Amino acid sequence: MKVRKAVIPAAGLGTRFLPATKALAKEMLPIIDKPTIQYIVEEAKKSGIEDILVVTGKGKRPIEDHFDSVPELEQNLKDKGKTELLKLVEQTTDINLYFIRQSHPRGLGDAVLMAKDFVGDEPFVVMLGDDIMKDKVPLTKQLMDRYDDTHASTLAVMKVPHQEVNKYGVIDPAAQTKPGLYDVKRFVEKPAVDKAPSDLAIIGRYLLTPEIFSMLETQKPGAGNEIQLTDAIDRLNKIQRVFAHEFKGDRFDVGYKFGYLKTSIEFGLRHPEVKDDLSAYIKELSKKLK
Ligand code: UTP
């Protein structure tokens, strides 16, 4: 069956970004001129996803409004002949987006469970709203290509520095069935650094079969007392194979302050409008601060 649907969980509390996230979802914080979630939606579109469900909590309205049309603004830009800006504004409305609210942020697993009716009986992808991925072929498309081969759930993983494994879900890899595609013995959420089975961490893209929902419905809270998607995937792996696909592109975790700053600088240094000024400014600033 073709993968057509994506779920973007964006209902977390974003505590690492307080007070900015008191009223605004962290997925709406902009990288240069686009909210983070727009990068994720663009990756979905490029991958051939047709329908997207955004799981929202607080700050829901700005997300909905961002992807809706704004007739007065569009007319104003038309009248003033600002066609480039008009194109940018119109681009955001060209996608089938649906919204559902997770009233209590009980964890990523609980957020994904909210998508049960939307997904129905189809395989689907989960794209975390605070993880931007860059590669020649979008990571979501890479997972969809794997699925065409295996017809099984496949998660994206990436090597991370060993001392950081306790922040992630980590896999205990078995053999590689194809280059970069692992069979997995176990999935462990936030292992202690000295107990982690590998340095291959689950990053923000998952392709899942609909059987994940029966696991989530009976999933007990795990690390951080939250319903962990990783724990449900570990149980799914006991009844049907779940693979891990190693991502070799660039990952930008914008869910914490330093990651957000690094991403803003790197994207700024590539942005045609600001790159020259930003690069000159950084050089000048580092001389000044020496
Ligand atoms: P994170 O753990 O990175 O997000 O969840 P958080 O909880 O918002 O952030 P901090 O740790 O408090 O700063 C990963 C993704 O899962 C979503 C988040 O919005 C984020 O995109 N999420 C998490 C939910 O949608 N619901 C939840 O209950 C938890």
UniProtKB/TrEMBL annotation:
The protein's UniProt keywords, in alphabetical order, are: Nucleotidyltransferase, Transferase
State which pathway it belongs to: Carbohydrate metabolism; nucleotide-sugar metabolism
Per UniProt, what is one Pfam family of this protein?
Answer: NTP_transferase
Whether Cell inner membrane counts among this entry's keywords is no
Quote the InterPro entries the UniProt record gives.
Answer: GalU_uridylyltTrfase_bac/arc, NTP_transferase_dom, Nucleotide-diphossugar_trans
**Catalysed reactions, semicolon-separated:** alpha-D-glucose 1-phosphate + UTP + H(+) = UDP-alpha-D-glucose + diphosphate
Domain (Nucleotidyl transferase) spans 5-260
Q: Its Enzyme Commission number?
A: 2.7.7.9
Entry similarity comment: Belongs to the UDPGP type 2 family.
Q: What is this protein called?
A: UTP--glucose-1-phosphate uridylyltransferase
Its ancestry begins with:
Bacteria, Bacillati, Bacillota, Bacilli, Lactobacillales
